[in-house]
Amino acid sequence: MSEATLHKKILTDIEQRIVSGEWPPGHRLPFEIDLAQQYGCSRMTMNKVMAELVRAGLIERRKKSGSFVTQPKAQSAVLDIHDIKDEVQSLSLAYRYKLVSQVRRKAKASDKARLGLADDADILDITALHFAAETPFCLEERLINLSCVPQAADFDFKDVAPGPFLLAQVPWTSAQHRIQAVSAGKSEAKLLTLDPRQACLVIERQTWGQGGPVTLVRFTYPGERHILTARFQPTATSDLPASS
Question: Using one digit for the tens of pLDDT, what is the confidence trace for 197-220?
Fold first, then answer.
């Protein structure tokens, strides 16, 4: 077997072990010398394979510790309203959703201020978890304005996440995102199985429809598992200063 063919075989084998979950995130790979012996190849061939896995973002090398499978990072567009299920599946990981709590209640003063609600407004308070390959991926904490979405009042969100339900029920006319880095509190750390005060990325989104404010949702991601992206275009040439 040629070196090029052997290189491709080894690369494919290790990639499959990572993608299939046989080697999960955080798994330490055998040392290069051991892998070279296992596959019957030269150290140079094995080093090239490892370098390619690093470039692909599948593994990371840690000085004096070895090579480890990286935690896959989902990418979402800052200006899009997306489905978390799509984020997880884009990583080729199995998706699962779990409803933690669903409570109908009167809006508190803080809820009214944040959502812009009238007095005595009824809201639905939902907490849910989204999983990627059985690992907590995102914590969702959502308030739904029932005067704008009355059909949500009696809907059981045990099997259907609130996001897809709302997108199907109420066309949104405008949205606002707030993005910040925070340290995980006790409740977030417990639900997301994080260390206390571990860095998290929080995306808070409010959407409005023709009937007024629809929902306010707070998504909390473990910081190391998520990347935000934004696509935009330059301003019109008529707005640009003339060149001298």
Answer: 899 999 999 999 888 899 999 999
Spatial separation of the C-alpha atoms in residues 50 and 31, rounded to whole Å = 10
The amino acid that residue 158 corresponds to is K
Identify whether residues 106 and 42 lie together within a single domain. Answer: no
50: domain range? 3-69
Q: What pLDDT digit, counting tens, does each position of 17-51 carry?
A: 887 778 888 889 999 999 999 999 999 999 999 99
Of 12, 41, 69, which one is at a domain's C-terminal end? 69
Q: Are residues 139 and 41 in the same domain?
A: no
Residue 153 in any domain: the answer is yes
Q: Going by DSSP bridges, is the β-strand pair 66-69/135-145 parallel, antiparallel, or unpaired?
A: unpaired
